[in-house]
Design brief:
Length: 309
């Protein structure tokens, strides 16, 4: 009997180890690409921002896969899991209020509501490849202060609060990349193809309920403005070709507004919130017709939520 056990135990142990190793759900998933400046990374910049008395927004940058990526490695869906006080430990088997799934690169944020205050809210983003693999998660977390406050404040030209600073306006001429500082100029003339860059620094994650741009059109021109989030700051742009490339301008964030009068208000929170995905903190504005803007008369009013501390 002892001889039989001596033989069987190693055999059973090998069988058990084989079964254990073959169970994918017990193994660590392959790592994704985590460098935020990696052009081949399909998922990046997973962040959170307080969006209300009982809500938090998660946002992420989901690129279309480059042609050099193997078909099996293309991400076809992501799943975000929420948990209070501790990191989520699994991808979640049921889509419910704590598990959300997205299948398009056009999805880049989700607003989690009915959350408890005075606790840490942890989130894990799992990316799934077409080949069947779930990648190791990206983590982030946020905290809702019980006394979270609503901030309604002008950004420019009134002196901004400490968390919104260094507002600048640049004109970039087409076709040569020759940016000029127009921050204090009353009349900035644009033609089709020119870019006007609004660059400012936000020192904390913010989700805008309102981003109201007051435009002073000095000659009463008509046409359309197109507003984009910029993925790079001007100092990182090498030439004009780079300026208009997908790696610089987030074309998916385009917001179009019609110019029809001398003074207009454009509420563009969708474009402003897109810039939270990047480090540029910049918006690019183009026009399809000749336009002269009085930058000195601009104002940008914002509304967002912030923890009290």
């Amino acid at each position: 009997m002892k001889k039989i056990l001596i033989v069987l135990v190693p055999v059973l142990l090998l069988i058990f180890l084989g079964v254990f190793i073959s169970c994918d759900f017990l193994l660590s998933a392959p790592l994704g690409r985590n460098n935020p400046f990696d052009d081949e990374a399909q998922i990046g910049r997973f962040n959170v921002a307080v969006s209300g008395l009982d809500s938090i927004v998660t946002n992420w940058d989901w690129h279309d896969a480059l042609p050099i990526i193997d078909a099996d490695r293309v991400i076809d869906k992501i799943r975000i899991v929420h948990r209070e006080n501790n990191r989520p430990t699994g991808i979640g088997l049921i889509i419910d209020e704590n598990v959300q799934e997205f299948t398009s690169t056009s999805n880049w944020f989700y607003n989690w509501t009915d959350l408890e205050s005075d606790v840490d809210h942890h989130f894990a983003l799992y990316a799934h490849e077409k080949g069947g693999l779930w990648l190791s998660p990206k983590y982030t977390y946020g905290y809702i202060d019980p006394s979270v406050i609503s901030i309604n404040t002008p950004l420019f030209p009134v002196s901004p609060p400490s968390n919104l600073t260094d507002f600048m306006v640049y004109k970039v001429f087409n076709p040569a990349f020759t940016p000029s500082d127009e921050t204090n100029n009353a009349g900035v003339s644009l033609i089709a193809g020119d870019f006007l860059i609004l660059e400012f620094n936000i020192n904390e994650p913010i989700y805008f309920d309102q981003f109201l741009l007051h435009l002073q059109n000095t000659v009463g021109s008509t046409g359309n403005l197109t507003i984009y989030a910029l993925k790079k700051d001007l100092q990182s742009i090498v030439d004009w070709t780079d300026m208009i490339s997908d790696s610089t301008i987030d074309y998916k964030s385009a917001v179009i507004r019609e110019i029809s009068s001398l003074n207009q208000l454009f509420d563009i929170p969708e474009a402003a919130n897109s810039i939270s995905l990047y480090y540029s903190r910049s918006l690019a504005i183009t026009t399809d017709s000749a336009l002269t803007i009085d930058v000195n008369s601009w104002s940008i009013d914002t509304h967002f939520w912030r923890n009290y501390y």
